[in-house]
Specification:
This protein has 237 residues and is α/β, with parallel strands linked by helices. It is built from 5 helices and 12 strands. A 6-stranded antiparallel β-sheet has the order 4-3-6-1-2-5, with helices on one face. Strands 10-9-8-7-11-12 form a 6-stranded parallel β-sheet, sandwiched between helices. The model has no long low-confidence stretch (mean pLDDT 91). The chain folds into 2 domains: 89 residues, Translation factors (Elongation Factor Tu (Ef-tu), domain 3), CATH 2.40.30.10; 126 residues, 3-Layer(aba) Sandwich (Rossmann fold), CATH 3.40.50.80.
Length: 237
């Protein structure tokens, strides 16, 4: 309990019909690296209660004066507790952790992301925008349809402001025609077509476990010199 941090809800933001962001103000300064996550605590008496105390990636830059967490809302008890929060309500969180984070020294990066796995990427990209870094970045972002894309407007605005950043959307379900998007699942040919120098970069993989494993297999299959990878699976989110 002594290591927990009090956070007060300041705003809820609807990202899609099923995704919502929650912004909190902490009662003390919280330091974290872009890409880290923290455990949100609803059951303080039973910290190991995995139904009510879950890990969520931070979906904002450390440069902001708040902490933002974004989740796809389901029928789970954890989602119900989040949605029941009103502005001004206070809950607790554990200190941020995680090693799959932004590294300024990496000139070239590729993000292979599925669904709500975009949240740590948003933290990194917002930090990059805040600092006006020009790291060469390609994002392959997979969703079921074009209606399921959290943060799309923000991602598109960052690509307009930073020519070193490109976002490649792909959809596994039926969508309206859009010349800027790829239909189907991400594969090695598609990646190499867009990023022929991928072996000179570091690939970050975030998303559901099955998607993470599939992307790891693709990266490991690219010739005699596998792609450098960092990855985290979103288990039970």
């Amino acid at each position: 309990m002594n290591n927990l941090i009090k956070i007060k809800l300041s705003e809820k933001i609807t990202r899609t019909s099923s995704v919502c962001s929650f912004r909190f103000i902490a009662d003390k300064k919280v330091e974290f690296l872009p890409g880290q996550f923290a455990r949100i605590i609803f059951d303080e008496e039973a910290i190991n209660n995995s139904s009510l105390n879950k890990y969520l990636s931070i979906s904002c830059s450390p440069e902001r004066g708040y902490l933002e967490f974004t989740k796809r809302i389901t029928a789970s008890d954890f989602s119900k507790h989040l949605m029941a929060l009103a502005v001004g309500d206070v809950i607790h969180m554990a200190r941020p952790s995680g090693h799959c984070v932004f590294d300024e020294s990496l000139d070239g990066m590729v993000f292979l992301v599925g669904g709500i796995g975009i949240t740590p990427v948003i933290s990194m990209l917002e930090y990059i925008a805040d600092k006006k870094f020009k790291n060469k970045i390609d994002i392959f972002y997979s969703n079921e349809t074009d209606k399921d894309v959290p943060f799309k407007n923000i991602l598109d605005s960052w690509t307009r402001d930073n020519e070193a950043l490109r976002v490649h959307y792909n959809f596994t379900g039926c969508v309206e025609n859009d010349e800027g998007c790829f239909r189907g699942r991400i594969n090695s040919d598609y990646i190499l077509n867009k990023v022929p120098d991928i072996k000179e970069r570091t690939a970050f993989i975030f998303g559901p476990p099955a998607m993470v494993e599939a992307m790891k297999d693709i990266c490991e299959s690219m010739g005699d010199c596998p792609v450098k990878m960092k990855y985290e699976s979103f288990v039970g989110y």
